[in-house]
Amino acid sequence: MFKRRNKKTILSKIKNSLWPDGGWKRYGQYLLLRLSRLKGTPSSLAAGLACGVAISFTPFVGFHFVLAALTAFLFRGNILASALGTAAGNPWTFPFIWMSVFYTGRKFLGVSADMSQHVDFLKFFEKSMRALMTFDFSLFFADIWPILWPMMIGCIPFYLVSWFLTYYLVKGMLIRLNTKSFLKKEEKL
Asked: Is residue 1 very low, low, confident or very high in pLDDT (cuts 50, 70, 90)?
């Protein structure tokens, strides 16, 4: 009853994941509409989403959902919206986020931000997981801390800017969307 008439091929599914059928603008409108249907005020929904987006800039991969929920709770934001906001950090955006956060942190700490120095983030996170699972603090301070510390410092400006941008943009759009739907209801009466 709820199946497609013409089943999508694997190639069309891949194409649709890279470029939605209706375009990115329509996809954004769809996501905004879905967000507006969650329980909460536009302010709490925007705060929750902003917390999720901002947490995506931290180097604590694997803890983004938990950290987003905690910050959303502190900011009185919607916790489900914060989980949705963590989608800003995904396999396509993480390499750019990590590089920009790392080199910004090095700049703030006064270490030369030499772009020729290559950081293998895959090995970094692999070693982090190994040190965390085995409680190997010598590995942590030898290999992980020199990369983690600049990333923690460098994520602060990205966190703040992304939080405020997301909050005010989404809040304005949600208020506008709620006003339009209210006016449509008035016209029907």
From this structure: low
